[in-house]
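Sync notes, pocket subgroup
Present: LS, DG
LS reminded everyone that the earlier model was apo-only. Rerun requested with N~2~-(3-carboxypropanoyl)-L-ornithine included. Inputs:
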Amino acid sequence: MKHFEANFDGLVGPTHNYAGLSFGNVASFNNAAQASNPKAAAKQGLKKAKSLAEMGMVQGMLAPQERPDLTTLRRIGFTGTDAQVLKSAHEQAPLLLNACCSASSMWTANAATISPSADTRDKKIHFTPANLVDKLHRSIEPITTGLILQSTFSDPNHFHHHGHLPEHASFGDEGAANHTRMCAQYGESGVELFVYGQEATNPNAPRPAKFPARQTLEASRAVARLHQLNDSNTVFIQQNPDVIDQGVFHNDVIAVGNQNVLFYHEQAFVDTQNKLDEIQSKLNTESHFIEVPTNKVSINDAVKSYLFNTQVITLPSGEMAIIAPTDCQENPAVFAYLNELVTLETPIKKVFYFDVKQSMQNGGGPACLRLRVAMNQHELSAVNQHTLMNDQLFSTLNQWVDKHYRDRLTTKDLADPQLLIESRTALDELTQIMKLGSVYQFQR
Ligand SMILES: NCCC[C@H](NC(=O)CCC(=O)O)C(=O)O
């Protein structure tokens, strides 16, 4: 049977803005308080997704979340009409209002961890929404994420949905941004790599000093248990705490894998050689470990350009390609490295560049914008077909963005009751376009 890897990209929501909410994420911090362009952001994302579909990849879209999040604002004590809630939050707690307005669900690499049926004991695809507890603005995502995933992957014969992990720092879980799967072919059992930033329950274990380690080993192990994986198809790797302190807040800022390729920076991990040996011993195929040395690309250049927040995809021809942000073209060291990489003896033969700057300015590159789901033809037929990218969906969504999105937004605009009305009108229409049912609180 045919099997492949599908990418589900997050559709950028109408409140996309730069509020500087993510401590430890250098781009979020550096661009705080700038004006954003939600319309351009959504279109940049749609263009990348459509281009992958045109390359012959299976491409889906995941709906954004309801923002401003009135449910959370009411839960923390703001009362009255919706407009009054926004006004008093803006006056009394503007930073909490900002957190309740982030469009951060666009980075679907953080939506959930997915294990394909080839790896799991019950032979179903498993989904665990990430609890994202390290950041307030992201910790309000998992319940709706679960609903959107369930309405996209609804058939219980193929899809097994779990709840998010307990909402405590010991179980900090950031989803697929810290998870990579290696395999010979997508439909064959592979090895799932869980990369964590710290061991929460072991005070003597190494951890970063300056910035938070958002993923814990405890969370990674819990997800592996829930997904019915076992020792022979999992490897747990610690991220190098020193690079977290230099702005590598997720593993997908410093490493990316696809099939038998692991593309990573020399300084990405702790105990690198032993972990690579463990991967190779558990994998039933020869791997290509492509290590990028510091003397070619510094951590600073990797963080600025997002060289590793690229998608490594297998094209229908069997060749691999890298989907990179244009920021990689603009960085001389990184551009030189990529030009050299495609001439080497590795499966990666092409690089395609995409302008996703609106997302990049908040620390999200091409890989942050997508959630990977390896699946076979039967499983794909069970997916909500209205979420799959094609000419029709592309043009419908572009028109929908043109109709509802602003081309300029600052944090001052977040309390505007009109923005709430525009967002809800847009999302209500979107649930009809994508046939999602009532996934939003305002629809329930
Ligand atoms: N995988 C990429 C995630 C980027 C995301 N940025 C943000 O949330 C920035 C939002 C802001 O600062 O307004 C994060 O850090 O979790």
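DG: The pocket of N~2~-(3-carboxypropanoyl)-L-ornithine is lined by residues 18-22, 25, 28, 102, 104, 107, 109-110, 135, 138, 177, 250, 362-364, 368 (CB under 6 Å).
LS: DSSP finds 17 helices and 15 strands in the chain.
Action: DG to write up.
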